[in-house]
Every structure is written in structure tokens, then in C-alpha cells.
Design brief:
The complex is a heterodimer.
Chain A lengths: L1 E2 L35 H19 L24 E6 L8 E7 L2 E7 L12 H10 L9 E2 L2 E2 L2 H12 L8 E6 L5 H13 L3 E5 L6 H11 L4 E4 L6 E5 L10 H10 L9 E6 L4 H5 L2 E4 L5 H16 L5 H5 L9 H13 L4 E5 L4 H14 L9 E7 L8 H11 L2 E6 L4 H4 L3 H8 L4 E4 L13 E2 L10 E6 L2 E5 L12 H9 L14 H13 L9 H11 L1 E3 L14 H17 L4 E6 L13 H4 L8 E2 L4 E3 L1 H7 L5 E7 L2 E9 L7 E5 L24 E2 L2 E2 L2 E12 L3 E2 L14 E3 H6 L22 E6 L8 H9 L7 H5 L8 E7 L6 E7 L8 H5 L5 E3 L5 E3 L9 H5 L6 E2 L35 E2 L5 H13 L12 H5 L5 E5 L6 H7 L3 E2 L11 E4 L1 E3 L5
Parallel strand pairs in A: 1-2, 7-8, 7-15, 10-11, 10-13, 11-12, 15-16, 16-17, 21-26, 23-25, 31-42, 32-41
Antiparallel strand pairs in A: 2-3, 3-4, 5-6, 5-17, 9-14, 18-19, 19-20, 21-29, 22-30, 23-26, 24-25, 24-29, 27-28, 32-39, 33-34, 35-36, 37-38, 40-41
Helix pairs in contact in A: 2-22, 3-15, 4-15, 5-11, 8-10, 8-11, 11-18, 12-14
Chain B lengths: L31 H13 L4 H27 L14 H25 L9 H21 L28 H34 L3 H10 L7 H34 L11 H27 L8 H32 L2 H12 L3 H13 L7 H4 L2 H28 L14 H24 L5 H7 L3
Helix pairs in contact in B: 2-14, 3-4, 3-7, 3-8, 3-13, 4-5, 4-14, 5-6, 5-7, 7-8, 8-9, 8-13, 9-10, 10-11, 11-13
The chains are: A alpha/beta, B mainly alpha.
Chain lengths: 998, 462
Amino acid sequence: MSRRPTCDEAMPRGDGHDAPLVQIGLPTGARSTGFEATRRDVLSLMGFSLGAIGLGAGCRAPVQHAVPLPSASTEMVPGVPNLYATTCGGCGASCGLVVKQRDGRPIKIEGNEASPLTGGGTCAAGQASVLSLYDDARLRGPVWLGNAVSWSEIDRHITTMLGGGGSDRRAIVLLSPTINSPSTRAVLADFRTRFPGFRHVVHDPMSLAALREANRLAFGAAVVPHFHFDRARVVVALEADFLGTWLAPVEFSRQWARRRTADGTRGFHVQCEAGLSVTGSNADLRLAVAPSELGTVAVALLAAVARRVNDAGLAALNATGLGQTAPHAAAIDRVADALARHRGESLVVTGSDDVATQLVVGKLNALLGNIGGADGPIDLARPSLQAQGDDAGVPALIDDMNRGAVSALIIWGANPVYDHPDGLAFRKALGRVPLTISFADRRDETSAHVHALCPDHHFLESWGDAEPVSGHFSLAQPLIAPLHDTRAGAESLLAWAAPAAGAAGAGKPADHRLYLRDFWRRALYPRAATAAGFDDFWERTLERGVVELPGPAVQTHAFAGDWQGAVRDIVTRASRAGTDHGGYELALHETVGARDGRHANNPWLLELPDPITRLTWGNVASIAPATAAALGVATGDVVTLTTETGKLELPAFVQPGQDRRTISVAVGYGRWAAGKAGDGIGANVYPLARVENGVRRYAARVNVAKAGRRARLAPAQTHFSMEGRDIVQSLTLASLEHEHEHEHEELPNLWRERLHGAHAWGMSIDLDACTGCSACVVACQSENNVPVVGAEQVRKSRIMHWLRIDRYFDGDGEDATTVHQPMMCQHCQHAPCETVCPVLATTTSSEGINQQVYNRCIGTRYCANNCPYKVRRFNWHNYTANDDFPYNMTSPLGRLVLNPDVTVRSRGVMEKCNLCVQRVQLGKNQALLQRRPLADGDVATACQQACPTGAIVFGDLADAGSRVSKLLAGRRAYRVLDDLGTRPNVGYLKKIELKEKA
Amino acid sequence: MSAGGIHTSDPTTGAAPDTLPATRWIEGTPSLHRITSDISRPMEAKPGRGWWICFALASAAVLNLLGMVGYLFAKGIGIWGLNNAVGWAFDITNFVFWIGIGHAGTLISAILLLFRQKWRTSINRSAEAMTIFAVMCAGLFPLIHMGRPWDAFFIFPYFPNQRGPLWVNFRSPLVWDVFAISTYFTISLVFWYLGMIPDLATLRDRAVGGIKKFVFRILSLGWNGSQRTWSRYEIVSLVLAALATPLVLSVHSIVSTDFATSLVPGWHTTIFPPYFVAGAIYSGFGMVLTLLIITRQTMHLERYITVNHLEAMAKVTLLTGSLVGYAYATEFFNAWYSGNVHERFHFINRATGPYAWCFYLMVLCNVLTPQVLWWKRARRSVPLLFVVSILVNVGMWFERFVIIVVGLHRNFLPSAWGMFYPTVFDIGILVGVFGLFFSLFLLFIRALPMIAMWEVKGVSNG
């Protein structure tokens, strides 16, 4: 595999989007015979050429029979993958990516190890985003009033309607989620020059508006700070799922994992939340707190910390006895102890939608000295630009639209009809706007009601850049020529803003790539302290994908917020809530698969088991066991949730760890115009919470009633207890730090030791670092062509994932503890599957990989029965080209995502993890070509590459110096079900328990 | 003719006065000619209404089987209720069930021959036929349970092998099954056919001509009934019986290794071979009882298949049923005694888990039901024996289901636990195979002598 510098140089410069999709070459067998051409040769060559021309012209359609190459390229060797750096467009976090391209098709997302933020990790949604490129639901081209038209025609209509600009006092509004692309901001500025009435409304479905507002009040800057969880010895998160879905989970996971060490500086992580999140499931101490109590907990924490640091200004606060009513008083004292011990190296973070709570937390951080400084945990000067949503924007926009004050509305990436509580009002208001334009890639809930559909590229087809965190820049380049007749959103804006021909400024580049390059030359290159010319800088940055360009710091002042007012506000509300008791609260949250709903038509994400509920294909109302018992509700019973703003029916799910007053529901489901896979999956909970005082609430009072029916869930795991078995093992930090004896009992075995060849491939999985985020699950699915089977098959326990993340609860109350355990083929050296196969279809290779020979397999399933880890997956049906399974493997377009290095399995054969044997082979080949021995780290499996915390390490156990050998020789190493004598080459590192460290 | 080597005393002359009167294995004193014509009647007369009703039902089930297996081949075994947790269920349950059924035939014809049990004479032919048909039914399942049945030949050690080092895996019990069952089928078929030759000659002689005579002439291999022929015939019978006898023990022992050599809790036990053999004979006798009670009523052969026969079979049923019950208890004891967490959990789950009702049904049918056979009156009551025999079959089917499904659905990692729910195709194929079995048996009693005439004559009172 060769890491290519850029796509740029291989690209015809005239058209920014003609990525080298295809390559000229005679297919094997069609040989020219030179001067001795016979009539037969001429005819066959002519036939081939005609075919090549025909196919070349059709390169936007799936090419199935040959790989014609209209222009030669040294970049592409058939069968050899290229890697290009780009930027993820999956969410606002804009992680750096390296995308694997095979024969002109992007087929696999990898993290960019050069990124100082993410360091090579990715998330599940990012991994899956490559499949969205090949989504059949995408628009094939621009649509004007329901008719497919050409870009020139739609441009004509739109420029006419937009008019001259200056004379029209009415607003042209762009509605989008957070845009952290500096070049796009420049495009918007240009647009504003052309149309002075232009306004940009930023709408994030799950926003951090309260945090921004609180920081404006407290520090004078409406920003989301850049958090450094690795700089904090104590992390207290109040309703912030920073390892799963909050702000920049990949970056935060990596930071958090750095504190999961046993070197004496191990972090202490406390999570206060209503529903169990990925982050909460990994916390050292987790407190179930209802959304309405979150403020009280923050106040109590502030009071407790103030007592300990003897802050004079807070003495009054203590005197009021505040926080005594807060739940978990004893635990809060412990947390305050820990915080007070680690002033300046602790971090309190909250995703609360309440400005007062945010202010109190801001005060707490200020009191602890966590803000600012060169290595402080909270950086306000160089803030995160990943969440700039303004909750007041959409309600105001609806008003404006209804008043007729909006002449044109451009919607770019937003879907308020679906994801805003006032979605219905928004849809009605759309009718009052003379011109509505959407850049949506499909006819979704919002774009179905606009005049002009100007579909944007998928991010893998597009140029672009991003500045996720102030000073951290990332470039995006196309991996493939646009599959459909789409146009970059920025380019559309540039085209409409272009002055009429002949006017001043005409001839300015309207091409997005040139604009981007020009912008970087103009605005960013001067910030690079480099002696190299711009072209060098540009090439290098494209190759690397990311660059740090220090810019001016955001000016903030010391904490000056009215925290006393905020405390009073919280206390008043708490006492008022105390009087009208009874009733439940609804809490909205994101899940790692569905996120905010924008990836709703992606079957990989729909079938991704949620790390907490282990459910696929839909959302549920999570209810605490005690509450469920009180309501007489069992898992699967449909409940009706009624809030002030709406009503919803959802299946209940009895969730250990859930706060007993709170019903948690995941957003992102219940789409009705997402596409074939995503429509009608789950229910849309967005309308149940409202916008209050300009801030969107993600919680509401709710009435719960049984609907009297049952729904069939699609769980990937049905039993949640480990039944007292030693499956996920742990040890205490104290024993790890103080006991140096490593007693490992070598159990006797009847079999002879297996002799290895040059290598013995193995894997180590650190259960203490694994958060359950599930990026590896999707990475494995993407790498290994694992089919999607649909909800009905999942219900029948036939999910195909080679790698699953088992999740066990200890206890079922609010204080239940959770463990995650990635489980895949353990590559036993005395494999139970191997002895029972009657036809030798599964064998262990000389390099220790237990391999499945698909051609040989007759499908007796004996191996799966005898596998103690139950990791073998059987093809019960034909999952490809079968209309019963209408997912990507059945669609000619969707099949383009398949990895050509991995066999697509037929019906009736067994399959399972093979430690990415194709990657091992590639690594060995490359080492051979470079005439060097294979080095440790040359081969990374897909799961390992995707893991944001580095929990998975693959390598050669025959090499005592390899990382994996060292890890598996360590004191934390163990093998699952060791006493069976299967001798797995996959080992686990025990979880570390703090045991009352606070 | 006389019954030769197996005939030791003449019941008509009576035994010594101080011994009990010998059991009479034929009612009345029919003449030898009468015996021949009684037994030949079903083959020579038009079948009655009862036969037609049974055959219509059975062949309808066969049509259903053909349709469902065709659909199975077209769509894949996903149409069954199997899943990642439970890789075998009805398919292998049926396989083991039918293999087990076959054992009674071999036991009756081979072991009882060696032990000179005269009561076998009336029932051995149909019991052997039952063996053949049961093994045929059983053999269907390894084929159709495969994910890719078109590659089923991979499981045979074929020559010449053009697939390099890929051959069969001699470590796999499934390969042992191939040898065990094909051997079993071959020996059973030869033994059955050989036993029929004198009767085929009789039928040849009775046939009035045409195709029937021609076919029987071919099949009877020129049998002439001479003293020399009989003498050699008896020796061959004994040799074949001696060859078949170990098979009674080996076949189900090997089938049990499919489970015993695995590491699945509830499967991985050394008790399985004897336990499976006892269970096989038990279920086989259950099935023989069912079949013979139906046949003697519908074909009016009460004279030859007497209550004495039924009682003898009931005794074997009681013995093997009690052995099976003992095995169940031993399994539980060992699970407790082993201290193995997985083993213990399996048996707790067997008795209290979601399939507990199958377990209790199995105990009721297999352990409690045969206990009524301690009473002679029960053993001699035909309706009661019929009910018992049906319950034994139900119980033994559930025994295999419990072993297979309960073993698989919850084992080592609780995260991978699952449930098996049968689909219409699971049930349809189960019913269809019963149809196949009964169709074959009904055709057999119309086409071939279902009682060994020459042997019955040896124990006749006339």
C-alpha cells in the first residue's frame, strides 16, 4: 500500500473533480500483436476500444466488467491501494482521515495518524461514512420544482430570483449546521458582499448553545473551549458523553485513554448523567442524576469544593446549606476531595442545556484554576470550532419567514423539518419564502419541500478544509470523481454570487478547488512559518492532511459571570420542582450509531449494536428497572411518552444504570425521508423537547403510559449478566502498583504445542482502554465486506459482525457497573472448531491465524457449535444480490464499497475474523519489495487502526520484542476461558479498578 | 422345515413338568400352509380402507417434504430457526432420533438371534425394515442440514482426490458418522435381504405369473430349499448376525461422539456412548411397538404378532427406559460433582431455563411412562402399550432436542446466548420425514412379507 502525496497532481487541472477514476490498459488476454496484426486482431482491438470508450464514458456508473483507463496514470496500479489524506464530513468534529482507494474507488476510512488531535482514531459514524457515498438515495443531479434540470438551467433560475441583491432589503438566509471550514466562511463572506441582506443561521440538532452562552456571560467570548482531558487527573462530566457523541469524541477518547495508565498518574473519572452513556459506562464513579437535578449537583459540587479550598467569596454559599438537598451527597464529597487535591489539573465539563448550570460549572473550573495556562485542561484562547449552533436562530428564522422577511433560504446540510421541535412550523413557513434552495444530497424531510435541489458532493468527492480547533487546520480532497451530477455547495454559492459578466470582479475563480487553493495562499499560508514556497506548502499539507497554523488567540477575561444569580436560579427551580413531585423526565441523547440522525440511511450504522443497549435498528425508551417495575413495564412493551410538545410511542427497554426518574430516548431515529434503509426505523423524539429562552432543551417533563402492545426489538445480545464467570477480568490499581509478582498458572494440555512458522500473529485488547465506542465494529465490517442482514435476521440472532463488543452489567440498579469486551475469533492454537470440521475447511495457519476456507466449507456449522466464544458467523441466506436483503450488497452502486481483497461469501458457508489476513499479506509483500524484514507495527488490523484509544494491538507473538508480545507477557494479560485449553492468540488486558480511590 | 440351529425344543411336546409352560408365540395351531397364506394375504389381496387412509396421509406428508426440501435448497437453511447461538436444532435432532429408531431392528434380528430368543421370529422382518427406512430418513438430515448440500461429497473420502491436501478430516466425528452409518446401512440391508430369500422363493412359487413372478424369481436368487441350501443359509445368517451385533453398540456410540468429543457443556461427557445406545434401543422398541400394533390391527395378523410378543418388547422397553432414566440422573450428579461452573449451569438451565418444559416432557415420557410396564396387566394391554410407545417416541425426540438445543443456546459467554424457535419449515420437514418413513413402511407391508414365514413356521404350534 502506498501513501500517495495528494490526489492533486494526478488530477486534470481543468476540472477540479476528475479524480483518476480509471486507468488505461489492456486487460489480460487482449494483446496487440504489433505489425503482424491479422484481421482477427484488428477486430478484437476495435471491439475492445469501442468497449473501452463506452465504458469510459460511463465511468460514473458502476463499472462491472473492465477497468478502462482514459488517461494513463502512474498513480494507479490495479490491485494496489492508494491512501489519501482528507477530512471527515461525518459530523462537526472534522477528524483527519486517510482514505484507502482501490482502483479509483474509496473503500475504507482510516484515521490520520498525523493529526495532533485524533492521532489516527475514528468513530463508528466516520467509518461508515464511506458507505453513504454509494447510497442509492442520493440525488443524481439538480432538481428545479420537481424536475431534473441542468446546472446551468437551475443557476439561471436561481440567479434571476436572487436578483441584484443590493436593492432588496429582504434577507437571503443560509441555514446550516456548524461550518468550521475557513474557506467556506470566506465563500460566505464573498456571498455577503454580493448580497448585503445575506445572513447565516447555524442550527445544530444537538447544540452546545448553553455552553457558548455561559462562556459569553462569564468570559466575554461565546465559544466552546478546547478541552484537554489528558491534562486532567480528575474529570467530572455532567451529562456529557465525551467518549461517545459529545463534541469531539475521537479526540477526547484518545486524551482520556492517556490517563488510563498505571504509572501513578491515573485519572479519576466521574460521570453524572441520567441515561447510561458510553462515557458513563467507563467512568470510575457514575452517579445517576435526573436532568432537573443536574444543576443542583453542580451547585453542591461547587459548595463542597469551595469548602475545601477556603474560598472566601463562596463562604456565603456554604452558609446557605446549599447542596444539602442534592442527591449523592456522600459521593459529591468524595469527588470534591479529589477535585480539591488536583487543582489546575482537573476538569469539570457539562453538556447541560441550562445556562445557569453551565455558569456554575464555569465558576467551579475557574475556582479550581483549570482554565487557561499553557497546559491547562480548558483552553478558551484557542477554542473548539466544532459546535457553533445558535438555538435562537431557527425560531427567529421561522418568524422571519412567516413575516415574509426572507426572500431566499438556502439550506445546507440542515434538516430542521426532521430535527427541530418546530419542524412542522418550519415546513409551513417554507411556503412563505419565494425561493428555497437545498444542498441536501437526497430528498429528505426538509429538502422535499424546497424549490431548488442543488445536491452537494459527498465529502469524499469534494475539496474542502476544516478548522475543528482554532489553529488546527485540515484539508479535504476528493477520492473519486463525483458519482452523480452534483456540485460542491461552496461552488454553488460562488456561482450565484459571481458578478455578471463584464462587471468588476468578473473572472474571479468560481471553481471550488482553485478558490480553496487561492484562499489558503491568501489567508493561511502567511501564517505558516515556513521558508518553502506556497506550492510546496500546499502539496505537503495535502499529503499530510493536517497542519497547525497558530493564529490570534481569542480574547477573554477572568470569570465574571453572575454565578450567584445562577445558583439562586437553580435552587429556586429545584425547590419548585420539589413541590410538584411525581412524573418523569425525558432526556434526549445521541448514540454512537445514529448520532443526530444525518446518517440515518446508512445500514452499517443502523445495524451497529448500540454499545449500551446492544440494540440495532431503532431506538427505545430506556427505563430504570425500579421504574419499569413500578409502571408494570417490561422490555419490549410499547409505552406512550407525552410531553407538552408532543407524543410518541416507543418500545420500553429496561436499562440498568438508568436514573429512576428519567426516561432516555436516543435522537436520530424516526426519519421518514432518509432512504430505503432508514425510513421508519424507530421514532423521532426531537419534537418532544422545546426551545426555551433561546436555548434548546434536551429534557422535558414527560408522562409515561403503557400503550398495551408489544414491539419486537432487534438485540444483538440478550443476556446482560456475566453469571459470575471470569470473562471480563479486572484487578485493582493498588495490586497493580504494589504487587510485582505475576503468577500465571500454565494449565496442562493434552495437545502438543503447535509449531509456528516465521510469525505467530496475535492480538492484545486492553479492556481498561476500550470504551465500547464501536468504531472497530464498523471498521471491521467495512474492511471485510461483512453483510448487513436487517432487523428480522438480527432478531433471529444472525447478525454477521465478525467483531462484536460484548457488554455486561454487574447489578441492575442505578449503580450498575458496565464492562465492554470486544470479542472476535480468538485464534486458538488448539482450536475446537478445527478438529470438528469434517472437511478441513477451517485450519490454523503456520502463522497462527485460524483461517476459514470458504471454498471448502460445506456448512455443517459444527465449528460454530463447538466455538466457546461463539464468534463464527454463518451465511444463513444469500446476502448479496438478494432482494430479500435490500442493503448495499444488493445494489450495484452499493457494491462499489466492497473491498476487492476480501472474498464476498456465498450462502451456506461459515465466516469469521481472520485477523485481516489480507493486510498481513500486504505488509509482508511490501517488506519483501523493500528487502527488509517485517517490522513490528507494519501491519495494523482494521479494528486496531480505527480504535481511538489504542486499546487493540496486533503483532507478532513470535517476536518477543513486539508490542503485543510485551503486553501479553504483562501482569494484566489473560485469555478468555483459559481453562478450556484452547490457547488463544488473542489476549486481553484486565480492567483496572480504582476501588474507592476518591 | 425346521427352524434349524435356533430351534431347541418342541413346544407341543411340552417341557419338563417342573418348569413353567413355554410361552406360545403363535395363537392357535395354524397349519404351515395357513401361515403362508395368512402372511401373503396383504401382498396378494387389494389393500383395505385402513391402508389407503394411512398411505394417503403419509404420502401427502412426503409431498410436503419434497416441496420444503426443494425450497430449502433454493433459499438456504436460513428458512429454519437456527442462528448464531444454536447451529443445530431440528435437523440434527431428527438425525439422531431416526438413527436411534433403527437400533431396535438390528437388536431384534441380530442380538436376539444370537441369544436364541424365539419371540423375535414374528417381528424381526418388520423391525429390520424399520431399521432400513429409519436410517434412510436419518441419512437425509446430514445432507439437507448442510449450508451447501451440493458440495456434500466433500465429506466422503473420495478417490481420486484432485483437491490436493484437502480431504476429509479424520479427527472429526462427522466423518466417523459417515463410516458408521454407511456401514450400518449396508449390513442392515444385506441382513434384511438375506433373511427374506426363503420367503421370496415362497412368493415366487405362489405367484401366478407375469412381472411379479419374474421379479421374485430374480430376488430369490434361485433358492431351492434343499438341505444343503438351508444349512449354508443358517451359517450365513449367524455370521451376519455376529457382524451386525457390534453395530448395535457402535453406531450410536459414534453418533454420540458428535457431542461427546465437543467441549459444549452438556455434550462433553463420557457417559454419552452407553447412554445413547440405551436410548436408541429404547426409542427403537417404542417405534417397533407403534408399528406392530398398527399393523397387526390393520392387517389382521394378531395371530402371529401376539400379545406375548408385545409383552416381551414391553420388558425391553422398561429395561432400556430405566437405563435412560439412570443416565439422566448420572448427568445431573456429575454436573454437580464436577464443580464446573459451565457444566453446572447447563443442567440448572436444563431444568429451569426456557426449555425446561422440553426437559420435563422428556422425563415424563422417558422415565416415568415406562414405569407402568412393571405391571403385567399394563404390558399386556394393547391400547396402553400403544400410548406408551407413542410417548416413548415423543420423549426420545425431545431428549435429543434438549441435549442439542439446551446445550447450545446458553453456554460459555452469556453475551452470545440465544433462543431457537422452530419455523414452519422446521416442523414441516419433521412431519414430512415421518411421512416418508410411514410411506416406505406401508409400501413394504404391501410388497414384501412383513413376517418371516419360514421362521414363524419354526415356532408354530401346528
